[in-house]
Design a protein that fits this description.
This protein has 468 residues and is α+β, with helices and mostly antiparallel strands. It has 19 helices and eight strands. The chain has helices spanning 10-39, 47-53, 69-87, 96-114, 124-136, 148-171, 174-177, 185-188, 196-200, 204-219, 221-224, 231-249, 255-263, 283-299, 301-308, 381-391, 400-408, 412-415, 443-449; strands at 316-317, 325-326, 337-345, 357-358, 360-361, 418-420, 430-440, 453-465. The strands form three sheets. A four-stranded antiparallel beta sheet has the order 4-3-7-8. Strands 1-2 form a two-stranded antiparallel sheet. A two-stranded antiparallel sheet has the order 5-6.
Length: 468
């Protein structure tokens, strides 16, 4: 194998770059359509206030130069258009340096968004997209053979994603070692999908097989990514199959899709089709790529140390550029699902007979007769944070009251994040939030009532609140 130019990976690089650009497109689109209510000038966590209290070294971003909602929209929609151009293969029709610049601009634009996103962008797949996107800058285009050293670094990222998730499970919840976590996971995961109800009702032996297979794919298969072909390709295929299972069973934004994309560079494209003969890499390009690769390997000591630690942390970034990160998911699995139901009334004085009307969210459970929808790879940020808030009010301390204030004010940008506004003519006088226990109905309950969920009120999450 050549370390800096193996034509066998020509097809793998091509498909990887197109697929990564598609993930970027979804990420930028998610930002463009949701930012005003979340982090805009009048948002729940405004960017200008954040930039005033956080030093530059902790959050490097283009918005240090200027912030306005129009400028943020320009950045996000530029990312959408550039991503679409790269999906179409525009980078292969321009010189190598220009192609690298396109990928670098895409990475810098998204880094600028993530670094001002605050709570709304505190998910592991944000860092994963940035780390993967930074490596994509150095992959070149059709004017040069694939730099295999970068393809191996992409395998290293995939290894840390899978192996880190496997270790966090073994070190975490006892149910992973007892193979019982899947008794609960499909019901209590952040945002169930349309098939999650059916996955939940699989026989318990099938759930145990799911858990055991998860351990094999996350703790054994990733090691095989570094073995000779075709074993590495088979390992990548097993990871892809597992991720597709997760895509069918829930909504995890672009995490599963990006993991699938990361598996592509491990596939020997010559097993499918022979690549064209490509010229050797220019000297400047080879030197630059090898220098970057050496630097990234040096930075890898921090996630390696985290993997070896008994106090392994999930989804940690070690620098403000998100160059090399630690990953992991579901070290703990909830046994009970709680949901926050937000309601409003146009009555000025709440009493026992007050009629409260419920707001409907796009993704999170609400109406018990509504089958969960499929949104991934699109990321509904408010819905996800509502799941965290139901686990603990601490997750909602910074943004929940601003959210309620905007409902009371009838803020259009906030209402666009919701599926149903029960006050289309005028905003409510009071808003409250109640905590409910949700569980999937049984087959018998579903046949009798047509409901996918059964819910029981627990307590108030926020008492009746009005604008001052």
């Amino acid at each position: 194998m050549e370390w800096f130019g193996d034509d066998a990976y020509w097809l793998s690089r091509l498909v990887f770059q197109r697929a990564l650009a598609a993930v970027y497109l979804v990420a930028f689109l998610s930002a463009a359509l949701q930012f005003r209510a979340l982090i805009g000038e009048r948002g729940m966590l405004p960017v200008p206030a954040f930039l005033r209290r956080v030093p530059v070294r902790e959050a490097p971003t283009l918005f240090r130069l200027h912030y306005s909602d129009r400028f943020f929209a320009l950045v996000a929609w530029t990312g959408v258009l550039l991503s679409a151009a790269l999906v179409a293969g525009a980078a292969d029709d321009i010189p190598l340096g220009a192609a690298m610049a396109c990928w670098a601009v895409l990475w810098a634009l998204y880094l600028s968004i993530v670094n001002v996103g605050q709570t709304w962008y505190g998910f592991g797949w944000e860092s994963l997209l940035l780390e993967t996107g930074f490596l994509a800058v150095w992959l070149g285009n059709e004017r040069t053979a694939p730099p295999v050293v970068v393809l191996w670094l992409l395998r290293w990222v995939l290894f840390r994603v899978e192996f880190g998730a496997g270790l966090i499970k073994l070190r975490g919840d006892l149910c992973w070692r007892e193979l019982t976590c899947l008794y609960y996971h499909h019901e209590t995961q952040p945002m169930p999908g349309p098939l999650s109800w059916f996955f939940h009702h699989l026989p318990k032996p099938a759930h145990r097989v799911e858990a055991a297979a998860n351990h094999v794919v996350q703790l054994v298969v990733p090691v095989l990514l570094f073995t000779p072909q075709p074993v590495a390709s088979v390992a990548a295929g097993l990871i892809v199959a597992t991720q597709m299972w997760l895509v069918l069973s829930g909504n995890f934004a672009w995490l599963n899709w990006l993991t699938i994309v990361l598996a592509l560079p491990a596939v020997d494209g010559s097993l499918i089709a022979d690549g064209p003969e490509l010229p050797d890499a220019p000297l400047w390009y080879a030197v630059l790529v090898l220098t970057v690769a050496a630097g990234l390997l040096a930075l890898s000591y921090r996630p390696v140390r985290n993997l070896l630690s008994r106090r392994q942390a999930m989804n940690r970034s070690y620098d403000s550029l998100h160059l090399v990160n630690s990953y992991g998911a579901f070290g703990t699995v909830g046994r009970v699902r709680y949901e926050i139901v937000v309601e409003g009334t146009d009555e000025r004085v709440a009493h026992e007979g007050t009629v409260w009307r419920e707001y409907g969210f796009k993704g999170k459970p609400g109406d018990v007769r509504r089958l969960p929808r499929q949104f991934a790879p699109y990321h509904l940020r408010l819905d996800w944070m509502m799941w965290f808030a139901a686990l603990s009010p601490a997750y909602a301390r910074s943004w929940f009251l601003p959210f309620v204030e905007r409902l009371l004010d009838g803020d259009r940008d906030t209402l666009r994040l919701l599926a149903h506004n029960p006050f289309p003519d005028a905003p409510p006088v009071q808003v409250r939030a109640r905590l409910y226990h949700y569980r999937f109905t049984t087959w018998q309950e579903w046949r009798r009532t047509g409901a996918w969920w059964h819910r029981t009120a627990i307590r108030d999450f926020l008492g009746p609140t009005r604008l001052r």
